[in-house]
């Protein structure tokens, strides 16, 4: 079975500060992991994904995430927050036998001037 | 990726009526899915829309309430039937191109439904 836990439903950072959004997963098979961003009144946009290979994955808008199997984590980071990063972020897990995605509960990122 | 559009983008409906939401992709895709995002919550998969056959529904969702069609590789509809205020949600379609894991799901902009 697959599941995703996102710690912190709301995260607030100052502009220019480090962004860290946490995602832990549970998977009975090797996981494929995704981060999506949802801006207000819009659909979901893919930020980055991990399937195999390099565990540090770089995505769009300066975001990156590191797959840590020992910690069952896939935390999302960005060195310096911009006001435009304010949005809701969803972590998702999929498996190698099926297409079903399991989404976390989401983390709303607020960026303060 | 592809351009995924949904119609309508939003609607306000009366209790007991039905609404059909369309999802159109500008290229052929293998898999199409429908999700519900209730206010302040995450995404819940309603069903996988299968081309030429009945949709595959997740636990808690039934065909009578959420009939789905997928007549070809670029188009699908979701109907929300006999609506109640609890159906007020964002409904999103998503697509995959290869149908083989690990594939990525790409999402449409969503349909914001309010039921009075």
Written description of the protein model:
The complex is a heterodimer of chains A (113) and B (116). Chain A has no helices and 12 strands. In chain A, the strands form 3 sheets. In chain A, strands 2, 5, 6, 10, 11 and 12 form a 6-stranded mixed β-sheet that branches. Chain A has a 4-stranded antiparallel β-sheet with strand order 3-9-8-7, with no helix packed on it. Chain A is mainly beta. Chain A has strands at 3-5, 10-14, 19-21, 24-26, 32-38, 44-50, 56-58, 64-68, 73-78, 87-94, 102-103, 107-112. Chain A is globular. Chain B is mainly β and 116 residues long. Helix content of chain B is 0%, strand content 49%. Chain B contains no helices and 11 strands. In chain B, the strands form 2 sheets. In chain B, strands 2, 4, 5, 6, 9, 10 and 11 form a 7-stranded mixed β-sheet that branches. In chain B, strands 1-3-8-7 form a 4-stranded antiparallel β-sheet, with no helix packed on it. In chain B, strand 4 and strand 5 (43-49) form a beta hairpin. Chain B is globular, with a radius of gyration of 13 Å. The chains are: A mainly beta (113), B mainly beta (116).
